[in-house]
From TrEMBL:
Domain Amidohydrolase-related, residue spans: 127-474
Pfam families assigned: Amidohydro_1 (PF01979)
GO molecular function, one term: hydrolase activity, acting on carbon-nitrogen (but not peptide) bonds
Keyword Hydrolase found: yes
Organism whose genome encodes this protein: Cryobacterium frigoriphilum
Organism ancestry: Bacteria, Bacillati, Actinomycetota, Actinomycetes, Micrococcales
Taxonomic superkingdom: Bacteria
Keywords: Hydrolase
The protein's name: Amidohydrolase family protein
Amino acid sequence: MTWRSSSSSCTGSIETLALWHDTYLQSTGHKYQNSAPQHDCYVHDVESPIKSPRQGNPRSQASGGLFVNTHQAVAVINATIIDGTGSAPRPQQSIVVRDGVIEWIGPHSELPTLPENTEFVDIDGATVLPGFMDVHVHLAMDGSLNPAGYLHEPDALLHFRGVRNARRTLDAGVTTVRDLSGSDYALAMAVEQGIIAGPRAIMAIHAMGPTGGHSDSRTLTVPFDCHPAGAHFGKTADGEDAARKLAREILRMGAGVVKVMATGGVWSPRDAPEHDGFTEKEMRVIVEEATNKGVYVAAHAQGANGIKNALRAGIKSIEHGYLIDDEGIQLLLDNDAWLVPTLLTGTTPPDPTKATAYAVEKKNRVRALLEKNIARAFAAGVKVALGTDSGVVPHGQNLRELGIMVDLGMDPMRAIVAGTLEAARLLRLDGEAGSIAVGKRADLVVTAANPLTDIHSLGDPQNISLVIQNGAIVVDRRIRALALSTDRRTA
Ligand SMILES: [Zn+2]
Ligand SMILES: [Zn+2]
């Protein structure tokens, strides 16, 4: 007897799936025929009034967290500003924020008269930076790297986990993320509507790759794609027509970036980082579809050949890049594309108690090579945006990435720019965020440490004393009674 999964069989509950699996294991004559089923259960509703991140006025969609009071003016005074552009720090500055937007920046001695209800935040010479951006996270993932483990979880648990991880990310000084699969667009909407506190999120929703590739997490016996959790992380498509259709479907769901698998990877059971994923032709049609909708494509790309396939297909965001060669570095430069080296995940040794044996072997193999390759790309001057792959490693330590970039030869100021304005350019948000400038969103991070002499200190959230998002204080580790200025200037 041959079992063949179909879209209708995918509608079963987790209990049904478990029963299938158990029955299969007990049945020696049965074979599971892998047909890469896709969910096919759409609810046709009226057009949603909620716009996707690429539509409408971006300012109106700014995420607010839970504590927004955008009408009150906030003045951050006695600040040393590192503005995210790479310019030298400017001491004794003040920043005035109103309606969530930076309204005035200048020497503290020239601070204009402000309304009576202005909240003065005296940071006593501490450094203020733009809110950081992590362009590679998976908020629904928690570092449990046995794909079959998701078979034992209800789908909704992913989303509750995402809520907690969004808060942890904000606590670490990250006010904007790009979630490259696993979380639903609902998470971005929940932040946007102030239902939960978290970074503003641009979502890939599902990653897409070829059958047997990095987004195909099914084990040999489990029809993994049938499980909602597994299906949330990755979908499969083969051939240009199928890739085009799946890209259109993911874009329809609200994706603000399309995530593709250009190579194999560490955590997928049936491929390796050196293997190609989608072909150049498949990726080319996905780029075409994304571009048509005003969206760009990010590629999980670890092996040297797949990196080049992705770049030749027109992909602008190369994730990981661990095995990049000189030709790939030159293509990055020629195509004006970004490298997102995800060093926090790449350099973290695998935990054999959590990861499968195949993942431990692949991870150690890549880890031995990546530092040299990424350092060479840094030295060649490629554009770099900060991304951590948090979710593969625990959330809430995102800014450790800055220190690792500096360990591989990057100047501390360039690392800060990679986590602020350069990341904003990749996310196409640089017109409204990513640097401290009049007219931009007031996403700010305050630290008592000196980031230029001790960049590693930013990796510990305890050294982030304040996080301001859209002009509202959303994280405050100061002792407010002592640190808040009693200075109440009146109009
Ligand atoms: Zn990846
Ligand atoms: Zn990832």
